Amino acid sequence: MTDGQFNVHKVLDAARAATGLDDFGDDWFREGLEVLLETYDRNVVDEASRRQCRQAVVAKLGVRLKIQAAYVRYPEILRQTVQTPVVVTGLPRTGTSALVNLLAADPETMALLLWLIYYPEPLPGWRPGDPDPRHDAMVAHLEANRNPEFDKIHYAHPDLPEECVMMHQYSFDGVQTGWEIMLEPYCQWFQNHDLGPLYREYRDQLKLLQWRRPGRRWALKAPAHMWALPQFMALFPDAGVVWGHRDVVSVVSSICSMTRMVMGQNMWNNDPSKIDLNWLGGQVMEWYARSLERGLRHRAELPEQRFLDYSHDDLVADPLATVGAIYDRFNIEMSAASRAGLQDHADRHPQHKHGKHGHRLHEFGLTEAQVRERFSFYSSLI
After folding, report:
1. Distance between CA 363 and CA 357 in Å, rounded?
2. What is the reported pLDDT for 193?
3. What is the pTM assigned to this prediction?
4. What is the pLDDT confidence band of residue 354, given thresholds at 50, 70 and 90?
5. Which ranges in the chain belong to alpha helices (H)?
């Protein structure tokens, strides 16, 4: 049982009061919301962080209300077909962000831009092509609150793509912000429930954003899609899945470091020193090993022609060659405008542009031998 701060009825009422709306759509999302609130209540002890988590939940509920209102106001949204997606997945820290950023530089491609994720609903009276004042406000906010250390790990900008899991948050499902899945009861709940409703809502969310900013195809990415490949491919049967690979020791070390920073920001008011790093190392390694096991098992049951593998090192060495292989594999035309956009992005965004992320595996109580043993099922495949 959660306390008043994380009471499900109170957070729902707070979102209604903040927006003046009351239609949350299908009630299935409430199960995940209740588990998430219990997870925060059980694990987040710092009072400022508790308030921050509650405020984030209320804000996401508000976005959910606005998305549902858009579906009602513009019924043509849900009559659309999602344009052919290319989705990047695989373990995190394998260059998935760099690759989807590059794919999104093709002017014929749509992507989940950060500012659109925060403001997916159209403003009242909005017309296609109109400027949106929320975009400039978000640019100013992000620049004023930028964290140079986090930029070395993952550089975010309102006009760059972000992970699909950021849309999943409005369904109160998926991996959330990457630290909730390390905690109970959310960790076990997520691994053992039906992801079908989440992905059906996600498809509708893509329709909303596609309706606002049409294009020929989607470029999407999330390592978390490894948990739901059957659901994804059933809803998007023409999708091409691009799977990133990298040495697992580098992956685990890097994602431990990133999770430590994110968890510190959300659980202990920007004080990562309060995190038990030995515990965190074990949790991170196990979570991503299970993610990969699930993904590879599902992949083996799906048509292999819908997949393409790439290596992190090859992407760094020649990013345009990786994109060329993707376009060839999935019969995507490389127009002159496409090539120019891709080349311009590659030229302006070399590796480590925002600084090099330093990380050390031993800080998290792990050894290289432990990591290689846990991922032995994978290392033999690459």
Report:
1. 15
2. 96
3. 0.92
4. very low
5. 8-19, 29-43, 47-73, 96-103, 114-118, 133-144, 148-153, 165-168, 186-191, 196-212, 229-235, 248-267, 277-299, 312-317, 319-329, 336-348, 368-374, 376-379
